[in-house]
Every structure is written in C-alpha cells, then in structure tokens.
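Two quick folds needed for the group meeting slides. Do the first one here.
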Amino acid sequence: MNDLVSTALDIVHQIDAATGGFASHSVERVADGLLDKALQKGREKLLHKTRDKIIQSKTEISEDYSARTISEILKHSDGVTNDKIVDLWANLLAKALTGDDHSIRPMYYEIIEKLAPEDALLISIVGSELSSVRLSAQDERSPRHASLIREKRKQYLLTKFKDENALSFSIDALERLGILTKRGDYNLEFSILGKGFYTTVCTPILSEKS
C-alpha cells in the first residue's frame, strides 16, 4: 500500500510540474512568506487526505488516469485550506487517480469554489443523515405529520449549525446553486444536479472489494 500511495503522489507531483505548478505559483507575484506557507499548508492537506482516502478504499492506482482531470483539480483547489472543502477536492483527486472519474464534471469545480464550509456541511447532512430523522409512530399518524417532521429536522439541523441564520444562509446558497430543493421549510432534498454532485464529490471511492 505504501508503494501505491507513493505512486499516486508521484503522479500528482509530475502533473503539477508539467503544467507549470499550482495556479498561484504560475504567475509572477511579489514574494510573500505568509502566503507561501498558507499555500503549502493547503497542498499538504490535499495530498494527505487524498492518500488516506486511497488507503481506506484499498483501490489500485489506474493506469488510465486522466492527467487533464488531475491537473484541473490541482488548479481549482490551489490555496484552499479549510478541512471541509479540502476534503471534497481530495475525494475528486482520489477518484481521478484510481480511475473512478467518469462522473466528474467541470461544473462541479465551479460549485465547490462557491461553497462555504457550512454549505459543505449541509450537503453532507442532507446526503447521509437528514432522511434518518423520523417521527414516532404516534406522530406519524398525526394530521400535523408534515409540520412535525419539518420541525424535527429543523431542530436536528440546528444541532449542527451555530444558529438559525447560518443554516438559512446555507440553504439559500445551495438553492441558488441548484443543489437543494425545499418541500416546505427544512424539508430538504437534492435536485438532480445535487444528487450527481453529492455522489461524485462527497462520497468516498468504492472499494474494489465491496
């Protein structure tokens, strides 16, 4: 597995070098030690997270990986240091390296670039947790069933966000991006675009042994 990861990181470094380096270093700029450190931190996070995802999936590096896709991911993720956003880029990079990149679309890069960390959190909750918030058997039979489930989901979401405004801002942002649709307040579902984005960008590589 160490050889596999070394191969993956070698591929990343070779493509980065062949394309002139990360975007922020491919143009002339005044040297800034603090900026360099921040950029280096982002790169290290991306590579470490990518490495971990490949190890966890027990998936081989593809011989038919797309250098162009890897290059685009590196370019668009350059300078990103927030863990939640870096994690999305690492998912894509790991999939590109292992050949699980058939559903990666350039529009997804643009969407990730527009996400705040809270938006990424909300996408993750809608995709993996929100549908599990259910009512008791008695409440299921209530005429107020719809309003009760909305209230219960709202309360669940507010345990994940610092306040209602932060949650509302993320819901609005993801609606505007076409990721989420609302069927009443806090009854959130993915749009068709959102389903594809979540499956491609947010879910890990499927193990070859799964």
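Then this one, please, same format:
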Amino acid sequence: MRATYPSRWFIGTATACMTMFLAGPSLAADDILTMKLEHTTNSHALTLPKVAVTRVFDDTSSLTLEKSWYWQEGVHESGWPKHDEGFVNYAFPSYNLGADNRWSLTPQLGAKFRSNLTRALAAIKVGYQGDGWSLSGRYRYEQETTHETAKEGTAGRIDLYASYDINDDWMLLYNPHYHFKHEDDSPDFGTGDRDYLEQEFLVFHTLDAKNTLFGGYIRRDKNSDQASMDPGQRNSSWLIGYQHKF
C-alpha cells in the first residue's frame, strides 16, 4: 500500500532520529526510557499507555521519540485501538543566563502524528534553577492539519513547571497547562469552549542512579454538555510511570 505524505515524512524523521541515537556515546550523556500508564475517571474511561526514548546530548540538547496508544471502554472493546500517536521532539542546547547561570532559555521543535491528523510544534522554555527547587515556563505553538478534510487549525499551550526536592529520593512536580485556540474560525475544544486548563500533580521516587518511579493525578476541565461521549463529565485521570537511564 502506498504511504501517505505524513507517513513518509514520519518514517524519514524517525530514521534520522534513530541515526542520531545510534551515533555513539561520544555524542550523548544519557539515554532515558520512560513508560507511562494513564487511566481516566469518566464513564467510558480512556486507557493511555506511552513509551518514550530520550537521548540527552553533552551540549544539553535532547531528542525524544514517543509512541502512545489509547482505547476507550465501550468503544474499543475488540481489537487494537483505532488511533495511536507518534511524537518526536528536539530540544536545542540551553542558553544559560545570569552571573550564576541559574536562568536558562531552551527552544524546542517537534511534531505529532495520528492516523487522522498531523501536528507541528514549536516552543520556547525559560527556567530558573534554585537550591532544591526549580521554576520554569513554556509557550508552545501548534499547527494542526486534519488528513481527510485538509482543514488546518492553530492553538497555543502555556505550561508552568514547579518542582521541589523533598530529599535525595523524593521530588514533587506541579505542572498546570493552559490550552487555547489562536483563530476565531477553528473548532472548539472538547470542553465546548475555546480554551481549557489541565493540572498535573506528580511525585517522583528515585530508586537508584538509573531507576525512578513516579505517579500522580491529572485534573482536567469538564467535557462539553453537547459532547457525543460523556457530556458534562470531567476526564481527569490517574497516572503511574517508570524511568530508566542506560
């Protein structure tokens, strides 16, 4: 079967990324495997597993390849889920600012690929590293194209990351993120509004130098009262995960 343009683009991007991953230890400081499992609390609960591999280079840049799936109770009971997602993201080397280099500026580029749409991403992140804590903010621009209709839409996302080291083994992370549409004629989000807010509360526990467990809760805005699935419900979820450095 002939591959579509997004498929060929993704295959080419993935090949280039894997070439960088296999380029040798002289180019990288760490390789990180991350696995997540998320389960929503609405009537037709979504189950969302994710697997990602990240290479962190010596110049502080990083490249992430992620694959995720989902299925929904009462919808995808038989067979593999209809929609899955591929994600690639490159974070450029951080620019350190200030006399003590506690401030940093990090540009990012990426893309998401689903069976029904392609989304290009560009972001800028500004952070401050304190003693046992950190605070950063990120703005991400998203350009989305639906495959069947070729309809395009643009959206923005603003993230705030606040972390606190309880001790050498435990760390807390609070990540609220605000999503909004840029143009007036783009479709509304599932909430029925042109914006929505999510808040992630995560706890990380370091087992040793290479292994970390984490988990927490993601609180989301309620779905639209006119939504075809679970109208008026909150699609919040619980999350567990594991991270391994190799």
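Slide caption for protein two: The longest helix spans residues 5-21.
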